Amino acid sequence: MAKAIVVGAAGKMGRRITQSILQTPGMTLVGAVEREGHPAVGKDVGDLVGEGSVEVVVDSDLERVADKGDVVIDFTAPEGSLRNLELGVRHGCALVIGTTGFSPEQMDEVRALGPQTRCVMAPNMSVGVNVMFRIVADVAKILGEAYDVEILEAHHRFKKDAPSGTAVKLGETIASALGRNLEEVGVWHRKGLVGERQSTEIGMAVLRAGDIVGEHTVIFGGIGERLEVTHRAHSRDNFAQGAVKAAQWVVGQPNGLYDMQDVLGLRRH
Fold it and tell me: How do residues 95-154 score in pLDDT, each as one tens digit?
């Protein structure tokens, strides 16, 4: 039985993750955390998510509950996730981190800390999206230099980072498959007389509107045809279920920094 703690338990993703844990055999919820001053602090998290009392009260300090759990699931913000990763290292907790928007310097910290405990970190926990990562790498290798690559992502108006972590990961995956560096060939905006498109470019376009849960399309554009690979999330449940799957998996692993390709057995060795 894996004992889980959810950080950001009263947020949009936190609520779905909490519900998923409560409904998953082999998982038990032992802790829920929200920021200091949040109205959910002090309340039973089961009542907050519509499951009835589960006798787990929302705390404002992960330090107070960390020793109760085997794994901490964190979908919050980069600064908070880094603090929680440091805490996890001290307490020997496994972590599942779905936070996006990390700076390069923050990612360096993650890469230094992650291997000191058991940590799954991925910009998208959806099974479908992680299959998409594998597919677009294969497509890029097959089509090669003759096809232009453009990535389009759309999310709700409340999303704070752009482009999405998933879109960036798609770009990195395709660039690697083509022997390119996304930092060198990524085009993040176009305006004005920008000239003819360079063949090595990987373009990135961002939409923010309403309550779009998440959509990602990779376009491979050739002369006379184009191939599109699209993933659309209809609800946050697929992300929550993926996070819980990752939590169940990571508690039995040796120390290391993993992602969903490892969890799902999709990584090529």
Answer: 999 998 899 999 999 999 999 999 999 989 999 999 999 999 999 999 999 999 999 999
**Would you call 155 a catalytic residue per the annotation?**
yes
The residue behind tokens 């936190």 is 14
Alpha-carbon gap, residue 138 to 117, rounded angstroms:
32
Q: What is the DSSP string of 145-200?
A: GGSEEEEEEEE-TT--SSS-HHHHHHHHHHHHHTT--HHHHEE----SS--SPPTT
Nearest in space to 45 (alpha carbons), one of 32, 60, 34: 32
Tokens of 141: 């290798």
Catalytic residue among 38, 43, 155, 245: 155
What share of residues in the chain are helix, strand, coil (percent, to 5)? 40, 25, 35
Write out residues in the chain with pLDDT < 50, as ranges.
none
Domains of the chain: 2-121+236-263 (3.40.50.720), 127-233 (3.30.360.10)
Q: Which amino acid is at 19?
A: Q
Query: Could you write out the DSSP letters of every residue in 110-139?
Result: HHHHGGGSEEEE-S---HHHHHHHHHHHHH
The backbone torsions φ and ψ at residue 246, rounded to the nearest 5 degrees and listed phi first, read -65, -40
pTM of the model: 0.83
What integer pLDDT is reported at residue 267 of this predicted model? 80
Catalytic residue among 12, 68, 91, 159: 159
What does DSSP say about strands 256-258 and 214-222: parallel, antiparallel, or unpaired?
A: unpaired
91 tagged catalytic: no
Distance CA 51, CA 17 (A): 12
